[in-house]
Amino acid sequence: MVETRTSRTASADDTPATKLAVEPQLARSSTQASSVAGSSVDDTGSLGTDDAVATNDEIGPWKGWAELENDPVIFTTLLREWGVPNVQVHEIVPLDSVFDHPPEDVYGLIFLSRWVPTDIQNNVTEPPQGVWFANQTSSFSCATIALMNIINNRMDLDLGQHLNEFRTHTMNMTPKDRGLSLDCFDHVRDVHNSFATDLDKMNVDFRLKHEFIAAEKKKKAAMSKRPRKRLREDYEYDDDENGFHFVAYVPAQGAIWRMDGMERLPRKIGSLTKGDSWVAMVLPELQAQWETAATSALEFSLLALTAMTDSSSLEEDRVKMERAREDWGPFIAHLVRLHAEKDTLREELD
Questions:
Q1: Phi, psi dihedral angles at 136 (to 5 degrees)
Q2: Site: Transition state stabilizer. Where (predicted)?
């Protein structure tokens, strides 16, 4: 599901040609999403427990996907550092403010809310020709999946050398294979993880290990065919930030598509004819989701990818991102250790 921490308001030399076939990271259960949604493609592979918690010294650079804060500036920075500099991400509040931008300048929309499985049948049964859609094959990567499902369908965008090559190499792949290729595309993953601290990565590894162990216990219990009480540790790891997921909306090949990486195929919302506003056509669905989330007192957010028309905030955004990337973990650990040595830790905590 979504690979991000939600806000309370809601290497570069690697080329895609060398990165197209690798086993995905441990997939999350299809019954649980995260603010980085877990993988749900049924036949994707999974790693063993030891793989999920291996250290950098053992396997080199971390190959997971960290949770990201749901911040439009972070998303704009991701795009810029991937090589897409002329796209800006905005939070849309209220809903009708989406019309502040001309429809031709709105490249795509991303809706964030708690993920729930749907029973609505998808009328699309085969990957649509010429439409780029990737499945989410790793936990905590759904924000990047949503962004990729938008920009790779915008042929009017120059994605930079790395992503242009990646789009070309993956265009004729299946959605699952695109997801697997993206999962091992270091250029994209390294930028995504540049906002994560070592503690963030350890938390992801812990959660994946916990879920793997729970899944193994469930499998063994099913094979034994003996009824038993459900143990506390069998439950999925959960906290207040769990369950959020990004879903993309984008026009492509004469139609509007709802692209959820947790589903096998995109969903066609409607057909476009010359002169149609794709934003106006997708608005009723967004309105329904907005109202459902609001009625259920769920956190939600709508982001828009638009043409960058004002670059005056770039320097301010750069400073903000430098602060967001600061890792205070070692300082805090050192401070705690000092107080522990002085036997003043309890006093400070009180």
A1: -90, 115
A2: 136
Q: Which of 90, 142, 184, 187 is catalytic?
A: 142
Catalytic residue among 101, 162, 192, 245: 245
Q: Are 11 and 186 in contact (CB under 8 A)?
A: yes
Structure tokens at 130: 């010429």
Pair of tokens at residue 288: 């329904």
Give catalytic status of residue 142 as yes or no: yes
Contact 268, 256 (CB under 8 A): yes
Q: At what angle do helices 186-193 and 160-170 cross, to 10 degrees?
A: 130
Largest Cα–Cα distance in the chain? Answer: 73
- pTM for this model (two decimals): 0.70
- Strands of 51-153, DSSP E: 68-69, 87-91, 106-114
Which residues are registered as beta bridge partners of 173?
A: none
Domain boundaries, the chain: 4-309
89-119 pLDDT, tens per residue? 999 988 889 899 999 999 999 999 887 777 7
Class assignment of domain 4-309?
Answer: alpha beta
- Contact (CB, 8 A) for 234 and 218: yes
Amino acid symbol at 44? T
> How many whole angstroms separate alpha carbon 325 and alpha carbon 66?
13
pLDDT tens across 202-233, in order? 777 777 787 778 778 887 777 776 544 443 33
Token readout for 95 is 């809903």
CA-wise closest residue to 156 among 145, 167, 146: 167
Between CA 126 and CA 241 the distance in angstroms is 34
Amino acid code (one letter) for 126 = E
What tokens appear for 143 in the block? 């924000």
